[in-house]
Amino acid sequence: xxxxxxxxxxxxxxxxDHGKSTLADRMMQQxxxxxxxxxxxxxxxxxxxxxxxxxxxxxxxxxxxxxxEDGEEYELNLIDTPGHxxxxxxxxxxxxxxxxALLIVDAAQGxxxxxxANTYLAMDHGLEIIxxxxxxxxxxxxxxxxxxxxxxxxxIESDEAYPVSAKTGxxxxxxxEAIVQKVPPPQGDAEGKTNxxxxxxxxxxxxxxxxxxxxxxxxxxxxxxxxxxxxxxSGVETELKEVGVFEPGPVPIKTLKAGGVGYAIGTLKDVSxxxxxxxxxxxxxxxxxxxxxFKEVKPMVFTGIYPVDTADFDKFRQSLEKLxxxxxxxxxxxxxxxxxxxxxxxxxxxxxxxxIIQERLRREFDLDIISTHPxxxxxxxxxxxxxxxxxxxxxxxxRSRIAQIEEPLIKAFIISQNEHxxxxxxxxxxxxxxxxxxxxxxxxxxxxxxxxxxxxxxTDFHDHLKSVSRGYASMDYEYAGYQVSPIVKMDILLNxxxxxxxSSLVHESRAIYRGRLICxxxxxxxPPHMFSVPVQATLGGSIIARETIRAFRKDVTAxxxxxxxxxxxxxxxxxxxxxxxxxxxxSVSVPQKAFVAVLKNG
Length: 602
Prior knowledge:
Elements: E1 7-14, H1 20-30, H2 48-53, E2 60-67, E3 73-80, H3 88-95, E4 100-106, H4 113-124, E5 128-134, H5 143-154, E6 162-163, H6 172-182, E7 198-207, E8 211-220, E9 222-224, E10 228-231, E11 237-239, E12 242-246, E13 250-253, E14 255-257, E15 261-265, E16 279-282, E17 301-307, H7 313-326, E18 331-337, E19 341-348, H8 351-364, E20 369-371, E21 378-382, E22 387-390, E23 402-417, H9 421-430, E24 434-440, E25 445-453, H10 461-468, E26 474-485, E27 487-494, E28 497-498, E29 504-507, H11 511-525, E30 533-539, E31 542-549, H12 565-585, H13 592-601
Parallel strand pairs: 1-3, 1-4, 4-5, 5-6
Antiparallel strand pairs: 2-3, 7-8, 7-16, 8-15, 9-14, 10-11, 10-16, 12-13, 12-15, 17-19, 17-20, 18-19, 21-22, 21-23, 23-25, 23-26, 24-25, 27-28, 27-29, 27-30, 30-31
């Protein structure tokens, strides 16, 4: 490995779909990290899910060797990052392992909401930011406008922006040279004499053959095979069996030196023994001080997830353990439901995060799962002065004990074309939000700052935003505290029995509308039984909506071929009594598609 002066660590940040992974592909080709035979598009996107959707979900490191114009060889450690707001935590962890960042702006779309958020994040980490204007090969590319927006919105000198086409490779060489010239080399003690050996765990995953694989950025000293590696937060020790770098696949090396980015494999098999953000040291040169880790992130969206087959519960629990190692922003704790059995209450950073985790459970772990309606954390002030947090409607105390309920707010930054301002404002007001200010970015686009209840953007807000803006609007949001709201608990009754999986906390003004939607969805999805089934939505003790699933009628008179009408009536009366008895003791089976229908209509 080269000395510290010849190492450059950097990440690529941008709004979703601005060409981060494509630029990473071109850089790997130009530095001959991958040959043409082994190359495929989106080299750093390992998951099928990432390749299908065209988005990056996990940060991916890769080590490249670049021969600069000065004739020197440099080691470039690149970490490709996600662009969606739900994965901002992944981005912040990647930045902690870097000294510089390539900030990509789409020449056709300009500065977007997540571009602004990621720029501020990079500035907070003190990174050297190199602006890049991508997709200059597009007919709709407007480079002068993109330069102006970089200067006006991001307050970065636009003369320093490099025009490139990640698709054709034009201008990529200039970026590689700029990284060598502008990104500072890593600072650290190469020998580890002063602070001991210290490395930051910025990511990890579970390999079923080799156990826990930790992704490291070595700050001081070096790690080599045979060392006793110790995780300072948990105190767990293990012998190093392998260290290596990503080129882009894992390549074992003898020693991972200071300033380097790579992986370390010990003998750990238990996923709970390692924590992202921890400091790794060795028993020979033990560090006295830990490196600054990452702030704990709190989930914003909660939902109950249950296995369809209760026999899969143990497999389901182990799958969640492995996923939580790979993604420490995802949380879970056990819960049970009378309708669905045993499952887990899972916390996510946002809706896309929730969708991705559920899809990974289905694909990677071959699980059949049902999820309940997503909810947020409410703060409930009781009349005795006690404050409690509620993320599940089942745990809400009786109304007579509650003084007030507070719901979480978000501050949303929406960037859109001028002509869509009216439609977006109307959408925000429909969701109980208000627009605080609008700022013109240029002659065509504005940035709107809005305050909204988090509960209102949970299901389909982003879809509606894209619809009213014809796909042009982009949104980023941040947590903005709590406000007092008239939140009520709505229960759904099937055959006069409360189904706790359908219970939800809603705003009082939305309860009747939402109750009708759910009742109608259940009426359409639950198949007829031998008796009529009333579907009711209740608020407190009063019914606010009702639908009836008509009985499946068996023709008991089919065997009659004539005779007196009283024979027919006698059979029908007997059937009527049987149905009345069945209604008292019969159970209603709810298919999985009914849960999905409620999720969509909620």
